[in-house]
Every structure is written in structure tokens, then in C-alpha cells.
Amino acid sequence: SDDEFREKFYGDLINSTAENRGHGSIAKMFDRVLEKEFPENDQPEGSGGSSFNSSVADQEAELETVARVTSDKTKKNDTKEANCIISLHFFFSFKSQDSDDMATLIDQKDNTFVMSNKKSKYPVLQVDFRLISDLVVLVVSAAMGGIIFSCLGQPVIVGYLLAGSLIGPGGLNFISEMVQVETFAQFGVVFLLFALGLEFSLSKLKIVGPAAVIGGLLQIVILVFLCGITAVFCGAKLSEGVFVGFFLSLSSTAVVVKFLIDQNISNSLHGQVTIGTLIFQDCAVGLLFAVLPILGGSEVLLGMVSMGKLLLTLVAFLAAASLLTWLFAARLLKLTMKLSSHTSELYQLAAVAFCLMSAWCSDKLGLSLELGSFVAGVMISTTDFAEHTLSQVDSIRNLFAALFLSSIGMLIHVQFLWAHVDILLASVILVVVVKTIVAACVTKAFGYGLRTSIIVGVLLAQVGEFAFVLLSRASNLNLIEGKMYLLLLGTTALSLVTTPVLFKLISPLIRLGSLMQWF
């Protein structure tokens, strides 16, 4: 009734005395209304049906004792008795240098986890201040490294790599959240390959296709054969030699593409052959991951089935991309162009979304992000909007490319390289010489000139950044021993650092090749 409603809403506000007026104030009245509207059992929990107890009961997680490090602002005397074992967790409180209140968990294997997303009773906007500070450090250090090396007349890529190694775990250890920063920087290689696809010419692809695809396959087979024979001759396991051959066959797409773009030679003949080979290597990475369990001693049949599925997926993905290009690409871009006639914001956003969607689909199908972004660029390159799209994403590409190269530098431990510089330098020289000869000979076999062959060989002479991922996977499968792991890790890191310097030796190598041909 109306009286009951007035009683529930106003409470004792009307009949209260001056002493009790605070309990029946307007504010209390609204509190009662809000409590009735939003009861406690109706609060959003955020995590849905997932919880600690249900995860353990469903065997999706296992209990483990961890250390929780917090930046407690209380006095030291107040925390002495608070440090006790609660359930299965050790809680240590000490005054940290961090200005935020986020805790850090350290498990029994010394893995560090930053608790930046605290559970909240209400849906609130949360900010990861550590990630923000890490990105600021990464951007500033990359800018400083690029400026310094540019002033010295050296490639800015070296500045990015060394800046990353300086602030990474092997240097001053300024970066706290390595996984988040590296994931964010992964957009760099995505946009690099997208821009590369925009500049890629399908007509030239038909010309360099055999050298890129068949030649890239021949390079992998030759390196695997050489390393396998060497392993058997030296008394090592054949599987270890085969893996090293696969490992060395990969080149750095990001570093080489950045160099080609900076030098404006991506559309040259040797640039197209190199890019085609790099794209083939990116496609082959998925096949290499399928081969690793076989080399590690798993069932051969399962590995062959996995490779077959991957090849079928690749063919289906490329067929779907061709169909979408023929049916929708030009119309969609034309519509977006009309809608963004007054501002380029919408077109820029649509281009980035198209690139990321293609990369995401490729990754979900078991292929690579790089392949998806490159295919997205090639799809747009067949339309009349390729140059306009490239101008829209050029600044985004440069920013994320610098972040990506700096994040690669964070994997490089300067102290480790310096401590073993002699054997690592000898290893890098051996790898560069062998890969240059193999790539140059294969390219020459397809009828290209000596100059083009030597340039392609030098451009593909380094070990790529994907080798870090391949190496980690092989270590988990016990395919290689610890000492070999460290040797390959150091060789990859040092080859990436010395690659820009190696590019400067292309002209002297061409003159040397011409002299040898004359003799």
C-alpha cells in the first residue's frame, strides 16, 4: 500500500527527533533505496563460474606454495608478527621501491607473476602502472639509442637492439613485466609485414616465386643435411643435428625488412627474392614446430598427421583470402574511403582492424601472425588503395617496429655475450659464411646474376628472432642439451646485433665476388 511504501522509503525521517535525524537523513534514505536496488548477492563478481575451489576440484590447477611480495606502507615494527604462513601461501611484507600497491608472486621455480588486476567487488577501471612505466622506459630508450646511432652514422636497428639489451634482464633490469611488453611489441612485426604486403607486387612474385619457394625449401634441406652429417661425423645425435639445421635456416624477417624499407630497395629484384624467401620461412615455422615432437622421440605418425593438417589449413587460408579479395576487398575499401572523406581517422582504423583480423585468423588456424598480416597487405595491394593505406599505417608501423626490435634486444644478455665472446664470435662467423654461401648458390642456380645472389645471401645470413621460440620448444622436449642451448642462444643474439654491420659489407663483398669471377 501507499503507507507501506512511504514507510520503507522514508523510514523514520518524518517522525524522527533532532537527535535521531542523522539516521533518517536524505543520504540514509538513498542508501536504503540503493541497497534494495542492488542487493549483495546481485553484485557482479567478474570471473563468472571460475573460482579457486572449482579450479582445484576440476583439476585445472594445482596447489603450490608461493611468496607474495607487497609494497606495504606500514611501519617495520608492525609487520614482524604479521609475517606468518597463511594456508599454503607465504606472505612477506617489506617496503618496496615501487610506488604502486601491486603485489608480486614468486613460485618455487623463481617465476615472477605481477598481480596487476586485483579482484574487485564492483566493475572498476584498473590501470597497470608497471606496464605503463615499462613501456615508457622502452620507448625512451629506443628513441635515445636510435638518435645516438643515427648521429654516429650507424643503422638505427643497432641502437634499438642495444637499447633493449641495456634495459632488459641482462642489463640494468629496468623492465618488470617482460611478457606484457614483448606481447605489446609483437604488433611491430605484424605491421611490418602488413606494410610489406602493401608494397609487394604479385607480378614480381610470379617472377621470383620459384627462387623464393623452391629456393627457400632447398636452403632448409641443404642446411639440415649439412648439420645432420656433421653431427653424425662428430658423434652427436642425428636428431640434434637436424634440429640445428632447422634452427639455422631461419632468418630475421623484422630486421631484414626494416633494412630494405629504410634503404628503399624492397621493390628491387634482390629485395623481392629476399622477401619471398622470408615469407616462405615464416610459413615453414609452423611445419618446423610440427617436426619437433618427431625429433624429440614422439610418435612419427602423429607428427606426419600434424604436418598434413597444417598444409591443408595453409591452402584453405590462402584460397579464402583470394576469394575475399576478389569479392569484397575493393568494395569495402571504397566504402570506407567515402565515409572518411573529411577525416582519415576512420580509414586508418579500418586498415589496422583489417590487418589485425587477418593476423588473428591466421594465428587461430595454427599458422602465424606474420603470415596473416602479410596476406592482408597483399589483398589490399591488388586494389587502387594500396599507396593510400600505406601512408596511413606508416607511422604506426615505425613506432611498433622500434618497440619490437627493442624487445628482441631485451633477450640479449650483454654479460653472457661478453663472457663467451670468443666462441660465440667464431660461431657467428661460421654461421654467416655457411648461410651466405648456401643462399647465394641456391639463388645463382635459378639464373640470377652474381650481384643479386651475393646480396640475397648476405641478407639471409643471420639467425632470426623466431629461433628463440624454436629453441625454447626444443629445450622443453629435451631435444638439445643445456650447453648446446646456451651456444645457440648466444649465437642468435650476437648474429642479430652484428647483422646491421654485416649489411654494410655488401658492397665490398660484391666487389670481391666480381674479382673472384674475373680470376
TrEMBL record:
Q: Where is the Cation/H+ exchanger transmembrane domain?
A: 139-504
Main localization (coarse):
membrane
Which keywords appear in this protein's UniProt record, sorted alphabetically?
A: Antiport, Ion transport, Membrane, Signal, Transmembrane, Transmembrane helix, Transport
Name used for this protein in its record: Cation/H+ exchanger transmembrane domain-containing protein
Q: Which GO terms describe its molecular function?
A: potassium:proton antiporter activity
Can you say where in the cell this protein is located?
A: Membrane
Q: Which Pfam families match?
A: Na_H_Exchanger
Q: Does the keyword Zinc apply?
A: no
Bilayer-spanning residue ranges: 135-163, 183-202, 214-236, 242-261, 273-295, 310-333, 398-418, 424-442, 454-472, 484-506
Region annotation (Disordered) maps to: 36-55
- Spell out the InterPro entries in the cross-references: Cation/H_exchanger_TM (IPR006153), KEA4/5/6-like (IPR045158), Na+/solute_symporter_sf (IPR038770)
Membrane topology recorded in Swiss-Prot or TrEMBL: Multi-pass membrane protein
Q: What's an example GO cellular component term for this entry?
A: membrane
- Coiled-coil regions listed in the entry: none
